[in-house]
């Protein structure tokens, strides 16, 4: 059974070509699935009976099973979805004024182990398929439609569990689908892939998907970034910023890269850090998105006080940057940045190792 959910137009066209059908079938299928929410081939009456029967026999359009759904006091919704491998991954819908932003997961857990992120602490079990990634969007869109919310999903960010650029093919397939007018037709500036800095894939991104890029920077120098984002030891800042420049020349126009910077008390939140950050980013067209650190059990890190957050932001604004301070949403249901954990079978044994260390600390 091939799961066609989440495939972009190019992949669907290849699939139909394999059946000896015209490329036009791909667009018809996309309209049924993404405009009308229909996943039952039998209902797709503009396909011949023979084609419908064949699709029903060898293909499916199956979203992940929803294992849990929680709603925050602020309107944020968090779903826990079961993957085919049996892991639980999380998806967050953040309604905000005129926008419905969906934060989706690209992997079960994460292999990168950033110091301050809860997802990394639980280890890693593998990549999600296009159906598992795109299925998160399909399910959330179904919920909005059933609520009578005519705007639908306006923004999608690959900022849930996992490193999207280490699941490159599935990520770019779904990104292409999201911006396709036959599917959701979301503006390419409102589909954002966020990366901890997988340099070779940043260099390739523009050639595979015309979407927005966010980079999890978190530190203005290599020594500090090596500690917070271990991937920096492999791809240091100079290479990372050079790759961002290559992405920008690939997408053309007046686009910019969003630099995410989680502010962590006593680690990276001084005015000196702000000045170094402003200097570092000077050669690049960059916006800065400050994220106050979101605590999770045993993280060992703290959120800076509000006046420190403001001073950091003001310093960047005075240096001429667009610097936004991300509002914390859904913290009461552990749906904020860095708090997504789900439940994954941990192939890296990282969670067991951590538990042993903690047990020793307590003893
Ligand atoms: N792996 C990708 C996608 C995750 S995006 C990436 O690193 O970009 C999630 C964002 O939240 C990243 O910028 C991440 O660094 C940040 N984050 C992780 N843990 C956090 C925490 N506890 N508080 C605030 N932000 C956090």
Count of all domains: 2
The hetero molecules present are: S-adenosyl-L-homocysteine
Overall 3D form: globular
How many strand elements? 14
One letter per element, helices H and strands E, the order comes to EHHHEEEEEEHEHEHEHEHHEHEHEH
Report the radius of gyration as a whole number of Å: 21 Å
Specify the structural class. Answer: alpha/beta
How many helix segments?
12
Q: Give me the CATH architecture of the largest domain, please.
A: Alpha-Beta Barrel
CATH uppermost class of the largest domain:
Alpha Beta
Strand content: 15-25%
User: Separation of termini?
Assistant: 51 Å
Which fold name corresponds to the CATH topology of the largest domain?
TIM Barrel
| Strand order within the widest beta sheet | 3-4-5-6-9-10-11-12-13-14
Nearest-integer average pLDDT: 94
Tell me about the biggest sheet? Answer: 10 strands, mixed
Structure in words:
By secondary structure, the protein is of the alpha/beta class. It has two domains: 2-60, DNA polymerase, domain 1 (Orthogonal Bundle); 65-357, TIM Barrel (Alpha-Beta Barrel), CATH 3.20.20.70. The chain is 37% helix and 19% strand. The protein is built from twelve helices and 14 strands. The strands form three sheets. It has a ten-stranded mixed β-sheet with strand order 3-4-5-6-9-10-11-12-13-14. A two-stranded parallel sheet has the order 1-2. Helix 7 (199-208) packs parallel to helix 9 (237-251) and helix 10 (271-281) packs parallel to helix 11. The termini are far apart. Bound molecules: S-adenosyl-L-homocysteine (SAH).
């Amino acid at each position: 059974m091939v799961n066609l959910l989440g495939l972009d137009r190019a992949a669907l066209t290849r699939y139909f070509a394999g059946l000896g059908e015209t490329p036009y079938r791909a667009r018809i299928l996309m309209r049924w699935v993404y405009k009308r929410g229909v996943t039952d081939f039998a209902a797709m009456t503009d396909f011949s009976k023979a084609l419908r029967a064949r699709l029903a026999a060898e293909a499916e359009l199956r979203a992940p099973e929803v294992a849990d759904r929680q709603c925050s006091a602020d309107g944020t919704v968090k779903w826990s979805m079961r993957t085919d491998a049996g892991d639980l991954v999380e998806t967050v819908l953040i309604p905000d004024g005129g926008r419905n932003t969906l934060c989706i997961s690209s992997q079960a857990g994460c292999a990168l182990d950033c110091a301050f992120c809860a997802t990394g602490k639980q280890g890693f079990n593998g990549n999600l398929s296009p159906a598992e990634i795109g299925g998160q969007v399909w399910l959330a869109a179904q919920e909005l439609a059933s609520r009578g919310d005519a705007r639908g999903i306006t923004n999608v960010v690959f900022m849930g569990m996992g490193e999207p650029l280490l699941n490159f093919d599935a990520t770019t397939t779904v990104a292409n689908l999201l911006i396709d007018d036959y599917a959701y037709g979301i503006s390419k500036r409102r589909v954002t892939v966020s990366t901890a800095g997988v340099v070779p894939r940043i260099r390739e991104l523009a050639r595979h998907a015309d979407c927005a890029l966010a980079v999890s920077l978190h530190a203005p120098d290599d020594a500090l970034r090596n500690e917070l984002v271990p991937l920096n030891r492999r791809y240091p800042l100079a290479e990372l910023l050079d790759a961002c420049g290559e992405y920008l020349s690939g997408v053309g126009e007046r686009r910019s890269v969003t630099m995410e910077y989680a502010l962590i008390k006593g680690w990276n939140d001084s005015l000196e850090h702000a000045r170094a950050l402003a200097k570092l980013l000077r050669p690049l067209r960059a916006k800065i998105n400050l994220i106050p650190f979101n605590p999770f059990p045993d993280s060992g890190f703290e959120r800076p006080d509000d006046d420190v957050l403001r001073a950091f932001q003001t310093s960047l604004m005075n240096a001429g940057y667009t610097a936004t301070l991300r509002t914390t949403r859904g913290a009461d249901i552990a749906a904020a940045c860095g708090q997504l954990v789900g439940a994954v079978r941990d192939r890296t044994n990282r969670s067991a190792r951590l538990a042993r260390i903690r047990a020793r600390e307590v003893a």
